Each structure stands twice: as C-alpha cells, then as structure tokens.
C-alpha cells in the first residue's frame, strides 16, 4: 500500500480492523513527533479503547495503565496514565474536530497531553481550539465505528499494533 507521506501516516491495526491516519505535523509538530516516537517503540500495541462514547469519540492511548499486555495494566485506572515521557505543551490549532479527526486527550491543564488520544465519531466543534488536533482517519473509519462503547468499556477493543507507514 502506498501513502502520499509515509513518514506522517499511521497504520493502526485494531481488534475491529485496520485504521489509517494521516498525521498533521504542519499544525501539531510536537504531538505528531510524540505519537510517532511511541508508535515506533511499540508502546501503543495492546492498548485498549478505554472510553468510547456513542455519537462523540473513541479514546485510547494510555500506555501506562491501558496496555492489556503490560505489567501495570489496570482496567479501573485505564485513562489515568500516560507514557514515561513528559507532558506536551498545547498546540491548539484551527482544525475542526469533525468526523474522523484525531486529537489529544488531556487533563484540565492545557499542557497535560501525553500519549492518550481520541478519534471523533461525529462533529465535536465545541472542542475546537481547546484540544490539539494532530491527524485524521483517511481509511478504516468504518472499523472505528465498530469499537465497543462504554465509559469505562467492559472487555474493550484494543490497538493490536500501531506503526508509522514508512517503517512497514
């Protein structure tokens, strides 16, 4: 499979199928760099979709407590952790949180994004300029639509593997 910019394309295999994400280093260079760094280290492999809200979004990326293959996996704490890397400075931009957009999850502090991200099911423009948009699903949104819902999710779907297309 060929992509326009393989260095800035993610191929995420989930328990529901393949999802391809075009990353946007032009609007969120620090966040894209972090996602690629964690993906290349295999940190997202096995991480569950811990918060999935119908009509809103599917959240994943807690590499500390959300990796079902990890030593510190804790379904009750999934969503409360990040990675071993420092939190990121916000890179709020003018991109719309529309269907398929990938944006960073964070705590109340705008500069608290780390490894968690979400994919919008529908327009969520109320998040615009308050969360950092870093990419968009360009293939496999029908698979994202199939991810099991819940807050928290019982027996959640997960990322099987997440790779930068340039590395495939």
Find the CATH superfamily: Cyclophilin-like
Would you tell me which CATH topology applies? Cyclophilin
Please describe the biggest sheet, giving its number of strands, its sense, and whether it closes into a barrel: 8 strands, antiparallel
Tally of separate helices: 2
Give the proportion of residues in helices: under 10%
- How many β-strand runs? 8
**Secondary-structure element order, as H and E?**
EEHEEEEEHE
Q: What shape does the CA trace take?
A: globular
Given as residue ranges, the uncertain stretches (5+ residues, pLDDT < 50) are none
How many domains make up the 3D coordinates? 1
Over all CA atoms, what is the radius of gyration?
A: 14 Å
Strand content: 15-25%
Walk me through the structure.
By secondary structure, the protein is mainly β. It contains two helices and eight strands. The protein has helices spanning 29-40, 141-144, and strands at 9-14, 17-23, 51-53, 57-60, 101-104, 117-120, 133-139, 159-164. A hairpin with a 3-residue loop joins β3 (51-53) and β4 (57-60). The longest helix has 12 residues, at 29-40. It is globular. The N and C termini lie close together (10 Å). The relative contact order is 0.29.
């Amino acid at each position: 499979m060929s992509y326009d910019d393989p260095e800035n394309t993610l191929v995420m295999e989930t328990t529901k199928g393949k999802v391809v994400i075009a990353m946007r280093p032009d609007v969120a260079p620090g966040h894209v760099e972090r996602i690629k760094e964690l993906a290349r280290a295999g940190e997202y492999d096995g991480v569950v979709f811990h918060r999935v809200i119908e009509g809103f979004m599917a959240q994943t990326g807690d590499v500390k407590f959300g990796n079902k293959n990890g030593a510190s996996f804790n379904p009750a704490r999934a969503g409360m952790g990040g990675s071993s890397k420092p939190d990121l400075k916000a890179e709020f931009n003018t991109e719309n949180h529309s269907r398929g957009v990938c944006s960073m999850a964070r705590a109340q502090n705008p500069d608290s994004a780390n490894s968690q991200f979400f994919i919008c099911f529908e327009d969520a423009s109320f998040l615009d300029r308050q969360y950092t948009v870093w990419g968009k699903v360009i293939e496999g949104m029908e698979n994202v639509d199939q991810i099991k819902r819940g807050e928290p999710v019982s027996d959640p779907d997960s990322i099987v593997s997440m790779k930068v297309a340039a590395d495939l």
